[in-house]
Amino acid sequence: MGPGTDAPPVRQKMFDRAGQKYRGWKPHNYSDYDSGSESHPLMSSDTSQTSHTSFGATAFMFPDSETSDLESAAPVRPRPRSPEFYNTARRPFLYPVDNFRKNDSSWEDQMSAITYNRFQYYSKLRAYALDDNALIIPNHVVPFTYFVPYISGTESRGDGKQGSLVTIFAVWNTIMGSSLLTMPWGMQNAGLLMGIITIVAMGGLCLYTAHKILQVQMHHGEGNPDGEVAELATQLLGKWAGYIAKLFSLLVLLGAVIVYWVLMSNFLYHSVDYIYGKVQHETVTDTADFSPQNGSEAPPSVLCPLYQFYNEVPYNTSVSEGQRTTFDRVWNLTTTVPIFLVFVIGPLINFRSVTFFTKFNSLGTLSVMYILVFVIIKSASFGVNVDFRNIASIHFTPVFQASFPALSGMASLSFFIHNIIITIMRNNRHQEKNTRDLSIAYMLVTATYAFIGIIFYICFPLRKNCISDNLLNNFQNWDPMTVIARAFLFFQLITVYPLIAFMLRSQFFMAVTRDVYPGFSHVMGFNAIIVTICVLFAVFLPSIGTIIRYTGALCGLLYIFTLPILLHLASKRASGKASLISTVLHLIIPVIGAINLLAQFFV
């Protein structure tokens, strides 16, 4: 409508004036004309002058709309466009139910990719909205398979963010893991007082370096909007730093899958052994007669798997080779079970998508809760068994042990979250509270680790050096709570292991081939190598405490003690705020990490 005409404005229908019409999936070559493309910015000279009053507080005049009833001034005539600009791709994206190709193996991947792109498009629209309720993603953009039943009290604000409480819980739940089972063993290696100091000190150091990563991301995140520490290191330090960060991130995941394989072999062995004993109606005969000198008696369910001696009598009797049954030869913890486990886990890690296993993530929280309840109940039944003076006492409790680096190395991995901390905290709705929320989360993790380690350590009824690096190994197979714990943890690890293996595989192939799934043969070969490594460790080094402390000390040296400090110093130097005193003090932290790694070889 020209500025000099008196005729009333004519509403034009939003339809495509040229171009072939397609039903169902949009052809790939039409992506250049998508209304969500960055090549056609929303706020440009082609848009209407009035764009802040149409939809409540904010509205946008798209290139398809040439007139508006709300124009108070003469509109600027847009530049003419070629006919092919107007095509079916500019309509709002629809998901016709009859066009879903569910029998197509790529259906799930296509749905995920298209939905993600559409969500990105509407997120860009909301970036210009002045009202939180404006430009909310419409229902027709979301596939019908993505709708879930309404649950009262779970309403979302529509910003894709999470509150502080959810963020704190997410950090706590992500950090907590199998290290809980090893905390009493770490406390035994450090001594009561030194163990507490080590846990608190390592927790504080890990919190500080994780906070430094967030600070650097806040100042230099413009060039790293969706990346993690590796991308940030590439931006500030160079490509070499990014490659090293990715390498050590892979080593952390490799250490995790090895530990999980050892634990799964342990849980599977004892669970099947318990079932076999029940079927055969065998009587438990491998308990020892405990008669401590102070008159107390240890519960019959408690074991000393390290074959330590009390009054020259072993706590755990061994079975001679001649007494071994066929079942004992076939079902052996360190020879056959890790291999049998391949037939259970092998098929689960070759899937292209592991979406099914993500539905069991809540089991991680339940397993942590069960371990807490397990330790509290068992410790309460044991009572406090502490003696700081009499070295000859069965309950002698040292306050300091020279082998405390075993706990510090293990704590490096136990507090490790640095490679994904940016992603977790990026989803916090209140970014100004990131420091507070991260600090609270680390305080909760530190308190949980210290509680498990201290209470089991001071209440353990046998000699403190009998504590195993897997506290469940200190209990008989027939103990009811132990049976439940092993079965529950085994199922939980079965669902977690494919996820960790998928992350390891995806990061490796993305770094090497730029494709997370280069082909079935490549994935099979990679998984075969990973499983072989896990089996070898489960056979020749089935000690999760040793694996965790070496992996933690090695990867912690770079990811916890060195890389965050280098990023911090590079950021300060770029802003011109670097000082000699601050640089020297911060460089002490990498030295601590190097000493921690070196000390592992002398424990």
What report would you give on this structure?
- The chain has helices at residues 107-126, 164-175, 183-190, 192-220, 229-236, 239-280, 326-330, 337-345, 355-358, 362-382, 405-414, 421-426, 434-459, 480-512, 520-540, 544-575, 580-599; strands spanning 309-310, 313-314.
- It has 603 residues and is mainly α.
- It has a two-stranded antiparallel ribbon with strand order 1-2.
- The protein is globular and about 70 Å long.
- The protein starts with 106 loop residues before the first helix and ends with a helix.
- Residues 1-75, 83-91, 93-100, 144-156, 283-296 and 308-321 have low confidence and may be disordered.
Strands of the widest sheet, in order across it, are: 1-2
Computed Rg: 30 Å
List how many beta strands DSSP finds. Answer: 2
Q: Helix and strand string, N-terminal first?
A: HHHHHHEEHHHHHHHHHHH
Largest sheet: 2 strands, antiparallel
Beta fraction: under 5%
* Structural shape: globular
Calculate the mean pLDDT score and round it. Answer: 77
Note the total helix count.
17
Q: Helices and strands: which structural class? A: mainly alpha
The low-confidence parts are 1-75, 83-91, 93-100, 144-156, 283-296, 308-321
Helix content: 40-55%
Question: Between the first and last Cα atoms, what is the distance in angstroms?
Answer: 85 Å
